Amino acid sequence: MGLFTGLPETKAAPTASVAGADGHRTRMRNRLLTAGSDSLADHEVLEMTLFLALPRRDTKPVARALLTRFRSFAGCISATPQELREIEGLGDAGVAALKTIQAAALRLMRAELIDQPVLNSWQRLMDYLTAVLAREKVEHFRVLYLDTRNRLIADEGQGRGTVNMTPVYPREIVRRALELNATALILVHNHPSGDPTPSAQDITMTRAIHAAAQPLSVMVHDHVIIGNGRWVSFRKEGLL
User: What's the predicted TM-score (pTM) here?
Assistant: First the structure.
């Protein structure tokens, strides 16, 4: 049994390190709310993101380690969960927080394209596709389904492959177009090597999809290959 002293119980004062971290977080939060997001450096945005997931941890060293490894804010949120778990102190909660930020950013970019004539917003479309695919370590194949006014109906992943190949099934792509009442397609995939130059297999696959779509009055507008900071349009290159 403890000794009763008659004095009110007091809580231990926080350590200097905890108090300092709390003050730092409060200052960053106030700066964000009063001066806007441009007032924060990349490492500070990472810190704020992480302290929501890791409230009892000083997130500044973790943010610094992320930027040292992945070089930029975009590189941090685009890294794979396996790569992120290699950062000391991050853990699954921190990994999930970063991937949530990536998902939110991509959804915001996609929302600006939905129901818009994408052929009139080409650079915005390329920015979105670059954000989705440029940092992927294996090939991903996506199809953009468009209506009669070339507005984006859906953006769907059709396959995920290896570092240099993705299985693609033309009949499945056309069948999905009919389900969505789409009248046109834009094919998209990435080259993890960073070089978006079309391969012979890319050209053959594109022609197979075009041949399957044409009899059903579904047009293949383009096939875009995303590389590292570059992209190639089959239509602009005269390949379609």
Answer: 0.74
